[in-house]
Amino acid sequence: MKIAIIYFASVMLFFGCANGQTGNRNAMAPVPKPAAGEAVATFGGGCFWSMSEAMIELKGVSKVVSGYAGGKTKNPTYEEVSDRTTGHAEVTQIYYNPKEISFATLAEAFFFAHDPTTLNRQGPDVGTDYRSIAFYRTPEEKETLISVIKKVNDTKHYTNPIVTQVVPFSAFYAAENYHQGYYRTNGDNPYISSVSEPKVMKFRKAMKAKLKPEFLK
């Protein structure tokens, strides 16, 4: 059994998020400006493939962009971020209508879309680029994040306490085009089917009341 577990772990590391498309040098995706009345939020919780899918399924969210934030390097590439030389984490930038969904609800969804109790790790993905990180743009958003963290910790939804970084937003850089919507266009990728999909399915159960109708099937 131990040999089988080690073999499975090795396979998952090979097909992990950082190994999904190395060498692909597609152009960087554009960073859209929010539409009139829209707000923007940025969260990082491991591989952005599943996080982006989870967030786009929420009512009130119009679009998401996979990208990088939290570091110092300007316009980083996927390879640079994966080499952990930039300080950035893989993140998802979310464009939403605050009249339909609140920042607090987005924050709660974020904590259910990944495991915020594991330091610099999400499943087979290990490193600071996979750290759990939440950005705030206003003092009110900072207070909201701290409040939601306390709420989730108090419910004992997770056995261990949340270790998510709560930091002020500085800059967001969109990832390469091929990362955008990757979850839906690469279902045959072993990483998607074995790691990302179970996370999305778990997210749907936790946030059922907040999902768009098409994801309630």
Q: If you had to describe this structure to a student in words, what would you say it looks like?
A:
The chain is α+β, with helices and mostly antiparallel strands and 217 residues long. It has a single domain, classed as Peptide Methionine Sulfoxide Reductase, Chain A, CATH 3.30.1060.10. Helices cover 35% and strands 18% of the residues. It has seven helices and eight strands; from the N terminus they run H-E-H-E-H-E-H-E-E-E-H-E-E-H-H. It has helices spanning 2-14, 48-56, 78-82, 103-112, 139-155, 182-185, 190-206, and strands spanning 39-45, 61-69, 89-96, 121-122, 125-126, 132-136, 165-168, 172-174. The strands form two sheets. The chain has a six-stranded mixed β-sheet, with helices on one face. Helix 2 (48-56) packs parallel to helix 7 (190-206) and helix 4 packs across helix 5. The protein is globular.
Q: What value does the Rg take, in angstroms?
A: 16 Å
Would you give the CATH topology? Peptide Methionine Sulfoxide Reductase, Chain A
**Termini, distance in Å?**
36 Å
Series of H and E elements: HEHEHEHEEEHEEHH
Contiguous uncertain segments of 5+ residues:
1-14
What portion of residues belong to β-strands?
A: 15-25%
**Number of DSSP strand runs:** 8
Q: Structural class of the helices, strands and pairings?
A: alpha+beta
The average pLDDT is 91
Largest sheet: 6 strands, mixed
- How many H/I helical runs? 7
Give the count of structural domains: 1
Describe the global form. Answer: globular
Q: Order of strands across the biggest sheet?
A: 7-6-1-3-2-8
